[in-house]
Amino acid sequence: MSNKDSFYITTPIYYVNDNPHIGTAYVTLICDTLSRFHRLFPKSVRFTTGCDEHGQKVQDSATKLNRTPQEHVDIMSKNFETIWEDLGIEHDDFIRTTQDRHKKVVNHLFTKLMKSGMVYKGKYQGAYCTPCETFVTQSKAEDNKCPDCSRDLILVEEDNYFLKLSAFTDKLQKHYDENPDFVQPSYRKNEMLAMLKAGLDDISISRDSVSWGIPIPGDSEHVIYVWIEALMNYVTSAGYLSDDKLFETFWPATCQVVGKDILKFHAITWPAVLMAVGLPLPQTILAHGFILADGEKMSKSKGNAVSPTDLVSKYGKDALRFSLFREISLGQDGSYSEESLIKRYNSELANDLGNLSQRVLAMVVKNLGGTLNQPAEIDTETLAQFDKAKSEYKDYFENYKLNQGIESLWTYVNYLNKFVDQSKPWALAKEEKFEQLNTVLYTVADSLKALAHLLSPVLPDTCVKILNNLNFDEDFSWDSACLKQIPSDHTINKAIPLFPRIEQSKAQKQNQQKKPKKQAKNLIDIEDFQKIKMELVSILEAKKHPEADKLLVLQLSTSQGKKQVVSGISNYYEPDSLIGKQVVFVKNLKPCELRGVLSEGMVLAASNKKELSLVSVDQKIQEGSKVS
Ligand code: MSP
Fold it and tell me: Which of 68, 81, 181, 435 has the least CB density, counted as fewest CB within 10 Å?
């Protein structure tokens, strides 16, 4: 059982064949928020994330881009780090499976696994899904498609090492019985229990047709199956073999958050490996659902994805995490879109919280000279409502129920709005009843201060602003989240608005295609030219447009993640010949739809009536380089 004073939370580590997207952002934001919540208490907290850099899928992506796997993983993992920073993620460690510390742990644990008698050599003959990096049994490989992602399977025939997973069925069942919270939510646990009931098959744990991986100790013809070594990142990152004190403090992990698609690896394979090597099992594996758009899993390949970085640059970091948690109940699938973010933003952030703060603090400045005094008593209903909200919030967050926890605090925000409406401070000001006015305004300002501490994991930037508006430092803690904390004779600052309203029509307009203006024939200033942001990118995929013969749909690897561009070059290029080409990408064009397909910029080409050639560079240079 984990040390109660410590809290160790992990995200899955992400494949680097693609840049971060809304799904990977969602789980990383969940972990960031939960780690911020636990940091409010006097507790040691560790939050780790990172990249899964080995395996066939990463090897194939590197080859397509004419990079060595190492070059590829170096570039891609940097993108992850940058984007997490843009999203306000504050992790304690960023682990990469190509790091020596990880290889050392994997060698050690795999050797232990072999010595445990639970590994044998055999032949695997069957299907493999490269995008999921999974072996697929024949009975599940209908029409040669992966049962999880529906993509084509490949046939592999390899001499492999196998783990006797079948031998762990009873032990795992016992663990589930004795630890009812091991897998959450319970409906996901039931799926795992059904698998255990059906009995487990032994699994392949090596590949011999893949070279990009960690070799099997003593048998370098094979590499360790990516899923087995990737799971071990969680102990590497907790200091296993490198920092005994750290490991003692944080292992076993308190909460490992994963998507429902990778739950089996974490709730069955991972505990079996830990049992075999004699390490304690994590306390909870928490499975979240998928973010959907129009009822389907949101994904770039389906063209229904919203980009987390675009949303953050338009609406701020807090609006993204708040709206994701509010729209999707952790565990279940949920729909999400830019429109749903805007609705939440306007109704809950701008109206309920932003307006409350603005109107009350403005009155303090206008009617009380900016100074608050602690009243002799605070209304008992307010005290009771606050205590209820705070304790419910704690309970929900400790049980990983983010949406319900936020709801509890919002009930209190709404109570405060009613309190203001009913107390009519504007009438008290008019009647010059300054003592009563101070009591009303103090009650709300003091509540906002307490709320800032409670809400800081969910709205980190906003809560700094709330405290700064109230003229306090942003040293968030659970103990400071109490009422009657503002001392007498306390002067507040002139309030900075928390959430300027978003005009929905304006936001929608931003998404609409603007007709290109006719170019004036006269010359332009350098400032005009500098408005065009261009960079060198490579082409990851090229396909014919489903509705237009002249158009190709290109997927580009850019510094802001994968971007899709529709380009009129189909008469001049075969799609396959474009893969891996470095081209110039105009990245700040407004997105538009071309014959129903989203285009997020353009690639440059030189053309005349007969020929067309894509603009490139005369020697290979680093991707993401600025073109000017
Ligand atoms: N590398 C493995 C994990 C190894 S952990 C030892 C992997 N990586 S991944 O990059 O493909 O996926 C990472 C996570 O993103 C998964 O938990 C997956 O569920 C999540 N998501 C991808 N698309 C998603 C949505 N549309 N919605 C929510 N999360 C989804 O798997």
Answer: 435
The residues, any chain, with a CB within 8 Å of residue 168's CB and separated by 6 or more, are 200, 271, 272, 275, 276
CA distance 373 to 376: 9
Measured in angstroms, how far is the CA atom of residue 290 from the centroid of ligand 1?
Answer: 9
Q: In CATH terms, is domain 515-627 a member of 2.40.50.140?
A: yes
pLDDT at res. 522: 59
Give the residue, by CA position, lying nearest to ligand 1 atom 30. 23
Residues in the chain with pLDDT values less than 70: 1-4, 300-302, 504-522, 524-525, 527
- Closest-CA residue, ligand 1 atom 22, reads 23
- Which residues have any ligand 1 atom within 6 Å of their CB? 12-15, 23-24, 26-27, 52, 230-231, 233, 258-259, 261-262, 290-291, 297-299
Mutate to test the pocket of ligand 1, among 24, 130, 257, 268 (most ligand atoms within 8 A of CB): 24
- The pLDDT, as a whole number, for residue 188 is 95
> Which atom of ligand 1 approaches the CA of 231 most closely?
6
What angle do helix axes 169-178 and 270-277 make, rounded to 10 degrees?
100
Nearest-atom number in ligand 1 for the CA of 270 is: 6
Task: Give the model's pLDDT for residue 76.
Answer: 95
Q: Using one digit for the tens of pLDDT, what is the confidence trace for 568-622?
A: 999 899 999 999 899 999 998 877 778 778 888 999 999 887 889 999 888 878 8
Q: From the alpha carbon of 52, which atom of ligand 1 is closest?
A: 1
At residue 2, the pLDDT reads 46
H helices of 168-316, where? 169-178, 186-198, 226-231, 233-236, 244-250, 263-264, 270-277, 308-315
Ligand 1 atom closest to 234 (CA): 6
Which residue intervals of the chain bear CATH 1.10.730.10? 337-491
CATH number of this structure's domain 337-491: 1.10.730.10
**Distance (Å, whole) CA 156 – CA 291:** 32
Instruction: Determine the Cα–Cα distance for residues 349 and 500; give it in Å rounded to an integer.
Output: 9
Question: Could you tell me the distance, in angstroms and rounded to a whole number, from the CA of residue 276 to the centre of ligand 1?
Answer: 26
Class of 6-288 per CATH? alpha beta
Domain with CATH 2.40.50.140 in the chain: 515-627
Residue 480 CA to ligand 1 center (angstroms) comes to: 36
3-state secondary structure of 278: coil
